[in-house]
Amino acid sequence: MIASLPLFHRIAGQPVIVLGMGDAADAKRRLVERAGGQIVDDLQEGIDKGARLAFIAYEDERAAQADAIRARCAGLLVNVTDRPQLCDFTVPSVLDRAPVLIAIGTGGASAGLAKQVRLRLEALLPRSLGALADGLHAARAALRARWPDAGDRRRALDTALAAGGALDPLNEASAGRIDDWLGADAVVMATEPIDITLRSHDPDDLTLRELRWLGAADVIVHERDVAADVLDRGRADAIRLEVARGETYTAEGLVVTLRAPISV
After folding, report:
1. For all residues of the chain together, what is the average pLDDT?
2. Global pTM?
């Protein structure tokens, strides 16, 4: 189970309450401004203007708790700096490759850890990642024309965007290859059923190929004893079906069957 539900909240042009003084409050103001929000520094004024989010950065815990309760009673989601027990949401460390945004959170456990993970990812992800996203967005009509079936379209993209694929996101040159890829004989991932017998209940024991299959599966068939942590490595929107040991299932699209580890 994940401790928090990650969401991207659009606040451009919207009022956002930021209360407090000092470095922590200033950091929240910069974050809100970066996302296009309109900062309101008075709680009641923000409530009256229809704000949906409130950042509170008080040193005084009683004052922070009082305003957090007041804001929450008015229907706002609240973040209180350095007091995760008072927070409805936490603020992740953000890696910006606009329009691609990667948010790294620890549920308030360690902002320093989130920052260091972000810095490692910064070194891995090329600046062209945003241009690749923009290019794929601009090519939506061409993608639909090339692959009218949504499943075929998704599998073609999965193949192209995979490691070493024509549009590998970690390759700086991929953003400039979209037109050539659309015009070439692009390879679509096969849809023959795939049967995986797990080696353990640990999802880290899945191979990269198996993870790629799970990420592309339209239907994930699994035996009762397959661990939830393994199932969670599949697409969230894939159909999931439980079957008896040794049973098979057929359906349209890519079907991946997960067999429970064989007890020795």
Report:
1. 91
2. 0.73
